[in-house]
Amino acid sequence: MVRVNLSGIHKASMNKVPDDPVYGRVKNLLQSGDRWPVLLRQLGIPAASLHGKHCPCPGCGGKDRFRFVNKDGSGSFICSQGTGEIVAGNGWTLLQHVYGWSFEKSLAEIAALLLPDVSPKALAYRSAPALRSTRSIPTSSAGSLPSAGPTPSAGLRNVIPAATPMPHEKPVAIDWAHLALDAQKRLAYLEKLQKESVPLHQLTEKTHQRMVQNYFLSRGLGENILLPSHISFHPHMKNSRENWSGPALIAWVTRPVDGPLAFASGKIVGMQRLWLDPRLQTGPQMQSRGKAPLKQAKMSFGIFDQSMVGSSVHLYGSENSPLLVVAEGIETALSWLRLQSMRGALSSASVHACLGTSQIKSWYSPVAYPATVVLQDNDPAGLRACNDFCQLHPGAKIVAPPAEHNDFNDYLMSLSPPSSNRSLSAPCP
Ligand SMILES: [Zn+2]
Fold first, then answer.
1. What 3-state DSSP class applies to 399?
2. Closest C-alpha among 296, 198, 256 to residue 393
3. In angstroms, what is the span from residue 77 Cα to ligand 1's centroid?
4. Cβ within 8 Å of residue 212, ≥6 positions away
5. How far is the CA of 295 from the centre of ligand 1 (A)?
6. Which of 421, 386, 378, 425 is nearest to 402 (CA)?
7. What is the Cβ-side half-sphere exposure of residue 422, based on CA atoms within 13 angstroms?
8. 109 C-alpha to center of ligand 1: Å?
9. CA distance 303 to 318
């Protein structure tokens, strides 16, 4: 069960209320009763997501990261996105989170349901085909969402993508030589953390090596794992939100569009931090799965809004690898490799973990690999993200774990009791 702290929430929406008579009528109707639950169901959000208890997010999946709150009939929700970065807002924001809809698009869809007299022509958006399932909505119109909640403030803090990135679009280039001042500060913060931490494969301190090894054992990943070079160990990472400081893993996020030297040349668009269970010093922690006892042991950080679009943690391999493997989670990717290794079916691969469904959708490599596999998590958002991925990478093969397991890590954990992990060989792409 994810418990969330509502302070400092970043909204996935903007504040300007449009001066639009249709909006005025829709707004009055929305305020006249508890209309959002019915509307959201009519717009395709499953009733199973709207019962008010923690459940998988209809927008980004997971197990229990989402809760439909519907405070004062506002259609409000809260979602931790599996990254610890919370997205919250009202019904308009929810439509944006689930479908990537602009405010104009949502207004058109809702007006069509609530105002039968409104001519489609009265709504600019209706002039374009309103195809909910394609989600191919121009981002330029995502400008005016009325919403509730605190306003993000500036400074060095966590950011989430402000809107669900549009699939089927290649990520835009970042002008690294002319980053905005705030992005420069954030990048400098990443550089500082890089200096304070050590890449996993270069760890020499025995206690740190042991913690890392015990973490991977706690995730069913075996003892002799090939340590990814884009993940570092930080011995005492601060978490000011939860007043905690402790050992953490930092996964560095880069974008294939920035080229094979992106990481080496410091073109790092963000990071994901995972605070570790301090008891890993003494052995694997199967109950906590190696995570620190925090509300959010895992948190993402981008150098600017949307900087993580099209990004991933590059775990192994190069642009010359014969196989490209793309997964949502780091542990998912490592688990699949381990399963392949256990079957003796592992070949050399370039392996990327995207850290979230929105990044899978927008992930793009300018290099064409001879074969591509995308690893699916077993939830609607996971399937949708993989389908979107295949639009950008025609010919990619979607591989999913057996239906009763949420992801390949769950599947792997079900196969290998902790005691047997030690005897298995590690994935070695
Ligand atoms: Zn979500």
1. strand
2. 256
3. 9
4. 200, 203, 227, 233, 249
5. 17
6. 378
7. 5
8. 21
9. 25
The confidence score (pLDDT) of residue 27 equals 87
pLDDT (tens digit, 9 = 90+) per residue, 212-242?
A: 999 999 999 988 888 998 999 999 999 999 9
Separation of 346 CA from ligand 1 center, angstroms? 33
* Confidence (pLDDT) at 151: 29
Residue 4, amino acid: V
Measured in Å, residue 82 CA sits from the centre of ligand 1 at 8
Distance 58 CA to ligand 1 centre (A): 7
Residue type, 286: M
Residues in the 5 Å CB sphere of ion ligand 1: 57, 59-60, 79
- Residue 129 tokens read as 């085909």
Q: CA 301 to CA 73: how far, in whole Å?
A: 32
The strand order across the sheet containing 55-57 reads 10-11, 87-89, 77-79, 61-68, 55-57
pLDDT tens-digit readout, 3-47: 433 333 333 333 334 556 788 888 888 888 889 999 999 888 888
Are 174 and 258 within 8 A, CB to CB?
Answer: yes
User: Kind and range of the H or E element at 384?
Assistant: helix 380-392
User: CA 67 to CA 77: how far, in whole Å?
Assistant: 6
- Ligand 1 center–CA 345 separation, angstroms: 34
Three-state DSSP class for residue 155: coil
Per domain, the residue ranges of the chain are 10-141, 176-423
Mean pLDDT by 10 residues, the chain (429 residues): 38 44 85 90 89 90 90 90 80 88 84 74 40 30 29 29 45 87 96 97 95 95 88 96 96 94 95 97 95 93 89 94 94 93 84 91 88 90 86 89 90 71 37
Give me 278's structure tokens: 């301090």
Residue 40 Cα to ligand 1 midpoint, Å, equals 15
d(CA 270, CA 74): 33
Looking at residue 81, its amino acid is: Q
